[in-house]
């Protein structure tokens, strides 16, 4: 999708605050600092719309971005922030569980992992959870410009294996720096959102 128009319409903690237009939604999840804001900005052709995190784990709301008045990106606050209190973690867990399991408009989840490393326990837990609820998921391996091209395949296989990726879910390489993977990620999103 060629994006010209994006509007942050809603920062929601409670289902009563979710948008009511009925447009399809794609959620973006990942641990803090994985490159979620950077990916979002590449997808929507902005340099700094979704703000890159100076305070990881700080935003504890679901942010709904209305894209071309056709669909929403739902930015889910990053998980695995070491300094978050237990109460905050529990609140976070409840908020995203409610959204991901009950939202009718949700068409799929883009789950980001750092392409340079083995997925963390949190990454594994998140994917296992999405798989359990049968939520269509695209795993995106970020920051691939930081490893040499010759190592990509090995790295992607390792990620697939560690997450025990289901055959119906996809894994794509991505770099916000070079924009590599942008079209493929958009293809997946559009297929999920509009069929
Ligand atoms: P978020 O916390 O998940 O939203 O992560 P950000 O998008 O703020 O990115 C965290 C840090 O990683 C920032 O310093 C980004 O510039 C950097 N970063 C994100 N994506 C990439 C990428 O594809 N390549 C490189 N080299 N750095 C990236």
UniProtKB/TrEMBL annotation:
Membrane-spanning residues: none
Listed cofactors: Mg(2+)
GO CC term (a single one): cytosol
Keyword Transmembrane helix recorded: no
Domain named EngB-type G: residues: 22-195
Name the UniProt record assigns to this protein: Probable GTP-binding protein EngB
Role summary: Necessary for normal cell division and for the maintenance of normal septation.
Keywords: Cell cycle, Cell division, GTP-binding, Magnesium, Metal-binding, Nucleotide-binding, Septation
């Amino acid at each position: 999708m060629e994006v010209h128009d994006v509007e942050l319409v809603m920062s929601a903690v409670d289902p009563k605050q979710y948008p009511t237009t009925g447009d399809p939604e794609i959620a973006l999840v990942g641990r803090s600092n994985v490159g979620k804001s950077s990916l979002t900005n590449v997808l929507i052709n902005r340099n700094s719309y979704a703000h890159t995190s100076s305070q990881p784990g700080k935003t504890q709301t679901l942010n709904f971005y209305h894209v071309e008045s056709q669909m929403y990106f739902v930015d889910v606050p990053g998980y695995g922030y070491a300094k978050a209190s237990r109460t905050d973690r529990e609140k976070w867990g409840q908020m995203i569980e409610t959204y991901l399991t009950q939202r009718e408009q949700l068409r799929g989840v883009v789950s980001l992992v750092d392409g340079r490393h083995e997925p963390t326990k949190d990454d594994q837990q998140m994917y296992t959870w999405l798989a359990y609820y049968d939520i269509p998921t695209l795993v995106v391996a970020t920051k691939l410009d930081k490893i040499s091209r010759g190592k990509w395949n090995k790295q992607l296989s390792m990620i697939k294996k560690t997450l025990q990726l289901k055959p119906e879910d996809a894994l794509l390489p991505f770099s916000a720096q070079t924009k590599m993977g942008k079209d493929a990620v958009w293809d997946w999103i559009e297929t999920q959102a509009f069929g």
